[in-house]
Amino acid sequence: MIGAGPVGQTAALLLARWGLSVLVLDRAHGRSREGSKSICQQRDVLDIWSSVGAGRVAEEGLTWTTARTYYRGRELFSWSFEHQGPLPPFVNISQARTERILDEAIAAQPLIEVRWDHEVTAITQDAAGVTVHCGERELRAPYAVACAGAGARAVRESLGVSFDGETFADQFLICDIRADLPGWEHERRFHFDPDWNPGRQVLIHPCPEGTFRIDWQIPPGAVPSDAEVGEMIRRIIGERDHELLWRTTYRFHSRLASRMRVGRVLLAGDCAHLMAPFGARGLNSGVPDAENAAWKVAFVANGWAPEELLETYHDERHAAARENLEVTGTTMRFLAPRDERERARRRAVLDGGVREEIDSARFAEPYWYVDSPLTTPEPSRPFAGRPPKGTVPPPAPGVALADVPLPGGGRLREFCRAGILVLLGDMCNLSLFAQVLGKVTTAPLAVRELAALDRSGGLAKTLGAEPGDAWIIRPDAHIAAIIPQAGPERVAAAVSRALRLSHERA
Questions:
Q1: Which residues have CB under 8 Å from 97's CB, separation 6+?
Q2: Which residue in 2, 37, 472 sits closest to 248, CA to CA?
Q3: Range from 107-111, 335-339, 463-467 carrying the lowest mean pLDDT
Q4: Strand, coil or helix: what is 380?
Q5: Is the distance from CB of 118 to CB of 11 less than 8 angstroms?
Q6: What pLDDT digit, counting tens, does each position of 353-386 carry?
Q7: Beta-strand pair 273-274/122-126
Q8: Rounded CA gap, 13 and 22, in Å?
Q9: What is the DSSP pairing of strand 242-257 with strand 211-218?
């Protein structure tokens, strides 16, 4: 594992969960304790972290419940929501705190070793494995997952991977503050063109323990002094006492690696893609990269699936990155117009005040593998495209399985993490299916009746499952197939497809 940030930490924990020994390398001298960095983690990421013993991220994080949008000091609209489901829809928590929680999970895992002061300068590989070069030091491994961040230029170049894209001219200033702001602790506030930042915007997020994250868009090349930053903060919060905890400036990038799999090496997170953070699609896409990579590496390394399964990592996660870049690119063109035509459009939209037309970023969502080579299409369960913001599509092949609490305790997705899960309706012969599927693969595979998970029938109703259905669920909780009036051979073929097994083996 190259990189000990949250993506690398997650991948290491997931690989160890599959029983593989993991060596994590990082060029830093040790863990940084400062800065909020990536603060907003969505439900699917919290679910992944919960599966590796880092459920405290969800417990400690703060979920705001009201979003307010302002234009030139006037509130245009607000919306609120209530928590539903076994996990919050998202939490705000500093990346530094998230990393410490993940570090604690790693410390409890004997299969993981972390080595700091190991900057990877090149990667070479052959038919037997990967050689990671750290200056004059060389380390061997069967596979490598590169999560070393945007600065991992040597890694990408040694693999022949380009990193094309663009960098936005405008800068952004981030400040973490601690202050007593009654009424703000559960509100996200987005200001377009306030008089204290004309022509640009400011975003204020509440975080745990009375802290707030403020993001300003500032002119290119601006370097505010400490005194100027203090005045900028006071223009937002008034003359209240506050403590400045951390500040930084940065520019947004929109870049994508030409390949996310090169032989035995997989690229994940910022090492593979960079996008503007509005909508929180950076770390919230990097962690699913890690999960996708981990189960596929584990299945290949353990001999449960052929090497061809690794190529589907590129197929699926490269498509996910392209979608995220399209969404964030559209948002950035609204937030930071590049020419007078785009500026005029933004003014017209904001003057109109129509909520649906104002783009302050669509929250991160799981990517749905509808077109994946691992997904078995089902005409009676078509994917209708992205639903309205804040809603989820009905279950369909490729879509992430809904996470619902089970009457006997636990969550539905917790049953998905141990391998391939086959859920059967009442009309399916459990023993016959188990017998046939046992001949398909040596991979961990469980065959369960939906009624055994919830005898009330509520789960089947929630999923829209019919008595003759068979549902094949991948280890990352995505639906690989829904087969109506299922027979064992059709289900065996869908399982084989989900693992890239040959038809003859099935």
A1: 60, 208
A2: 37
A3: 335-339
A4: coil
A5: no
A6: 888 888 777 778 889 999 999 999 999 998 877 7
A7: unpaired
A8: 9
A9: unpaired
